[in-house]
Design brief:
With about 230 residues, the protein is of the alpha/beta class. Helices cover about 35% and strands about 25% of the residues.
Amino acid sequence: MKTLIFSDTHLTCKFDEDKFIFLRKIIDSSDQVIINGDFWDAWFTNFDNFVTSKWNKLFPLLLKRKAIYLYGNHDPAEKCDSRVNLFSAKTGKSYDLIFPPKIYHIEHGHKILKGKRSKFLETYGLLLDKVDRSSVKKIFYNFLHFLEYLGYKLIGTSLMTESKVAKRSNEIIKQTNQGKRFLICGDTHCAEMDINGLFANSGCINYGGASFLLINDGEITLHRESY
């Protein structure tokens, strides 16, 4: 049994053929799929535009693998509707994948980090939440999206996802993990595998760079690829 865990694809109504081909490949090669939050991005689109976009070509593949969809901070439950059943067999805030005696506890990670991020990131998130739904908001969000795109293209995926802030956020999440369960998160975009610390972060799949986790017969591995 090969279980694929990915997060932070941040899909919008805009379609990316290369990203689609990559996602189709890793989904097709797995027996089970767990989407660990931020599958789509409510900051830049709405659920109706997402589910009716070309990304819905992924939905039958995900249903075939009875995908489990866990909500993140960019795609919270209140921003979705019953159409989540088009691509997932089960939804929730967290999920425990059990391979006795191992327990993999999977959740996006944003709730663990609430109130613990840098003041800049906390303020940034609050500002976005307060922007009205209007043409001004659309322009503002598109500008932020463009800046993010430039960052990934000019600075590079590794520097964007493995910044000091991102690594520090991983450490904060890791420190909350008590007991014998293995904690798997996303959210920070910073892929990491710490077997001794019972922690992994699936990273993200964005702008030509991808990281994801595979659990094959109970053994977890982190994978990084370009697309």
